[in-house]
Amino acid sequence: MRCLILLPLALSATPALAQLRAVPTQPASERDALRGVEVILINEGAVAVAAEGPRVIEVTAADGTRLVLERLPAPAATVAPGGFAKARYVPTGYAARPAPPPASGTALADSVGAPWRDGGPAAPAAAPSEAGEQERSGAGGAAAGFLDRFSPHEPVYGAFGLGDAGGKLQLSFAFQPIAGDGALGQLRFAYTQTMFWRLDLPSGPFAHTTYSPEIYAERRVDPSAVLALGWRHDSNGEGPATSIDSNRIFLRATKRFDLGDDWQLDATPQAWVYVGKQGVAPDLDRYWGNLSLGLTLARTDSVKLAVTLRGNPDSGRGAAELFASYPLVRVQNDLGFYLFAQGFTGYGEALDAYRRRDNHVRIGIALIR
């Protein structure tokens, strides 16, 4: 059963729009969203309003792709107080084109529901309580709750190269600890773990591991821009004699630009300051820097290129990292991951060896890009 994601509407909109709460279904992928994403519009006001949701909303697909959706034209209708209507959205750039046929059993036309009250029609089954537990059976017979509060953070991949490049594996996720549309609902906890597998050495040890928890508040400025302020800790997980522990307070912004023909460009500048001690690495800031710029160029269901530049203008040291990926579902429908390439040049790829300049190229697969 598809889960639903609750999104707030901008209160600066018209009074009618401010009364409607948009509850979009979660598409499986960007390709699935091209068939149309059903959005339930709930009238939380005291008077009937036009059944017209926001022009643009954003959702995260089940495969981790963040999508900006645009409302399709629909016949005029109204929503009674406490009632609901259905609208359809497609990825931005497709709204003016004929929509692909909907999935079996999905209606294209908007429908208006009666008010939700005792003795009246029940709320749609696909709209669970925001704080409700989502039960999902697993192979071990257990169930998990609140899975829908997890989302992608940094890429999740395994890539391998020749020589001392070895293997580089990364796991990453973000979690929303407090649900809701208020200030506390903007808080996120994230965790990233990066491991370096020295396949060129006897027994193939994991020579370096970086553990990176962080907590931040993320606020959407408009449908194409997001601001985040937070704290990040990076550690090699070792004892006092060899411990490297970096603590940074960062400010990050992301702005998306629609280039047309399904191409999009994301720009992500970031700045940070170091706080506290850094273990046995008091000069880490001279190699890791305090500024970065991320640029991502992607086409719907196609290639994605992402480059991150970081450095310290005073020391002249820094690094550049490039990610390139392509969805293998384009080659074989059963493949749910990406062909992935990663290149790095500069200082600080591995926290344990931040003073060493590396040049590495690796190829592998990514689950989240």
Spatial separation of the terminal alpha carbons: 25 Å
SSE string, helix = H, strand = E?
HEHEEEEEEEEEEEEEEHEEEEE
Number of helices: 3
Strand order of the largest sheet: 9-10-11-12-13-14-15-16-17-18-19-20
Number of strands: 20
DSSP helix fraction: under 10%
Largest sheet: 12 strands, antiparallel, barrel
Topology at a glance:
Blueprint: H1 15-19, E1 20-24, H2 30-33, E2 37-43, E3 49-50, E4 56-60, E5 66-71, E6 78-79, E7 84-91, E8 150-151, E9 156-160, E10 167-175, E11 187-197, E12 206-222, E13 225-235, E14 245-260, E15 263-274, H3 284-288, E16 291-299, E17 304-312, E18 317-327, E19 338-347, E20 357-368
Antiparallel strand pairs: 1-2, 2-7, 3-6, 4-5, 5-7, 8-10, 9-10, 9-20, 10-11, 11-12, 12-13, 13-14, 14-15, 15-16, 16-17, 17-18, 18-19, 19-20
In short:
This protein is mainly β and 369 residues long.
Walk me through this protein's architecture.
A hairpin with a 2-residue loop joins strand 12 and strand 13. The longest helix is centred in the first third of the chain and has 5 residues. This protein has three helices and 20 strands. Helices cover 4% and strands 46% of the residues. The N terminus is likely disordered. Strands 9-10-11-12-13-14-15-16-17-18-19-20 form a twelve-stranded antiparallel β-barrel. The two termini are 25 Å apart. It is mainly beta.
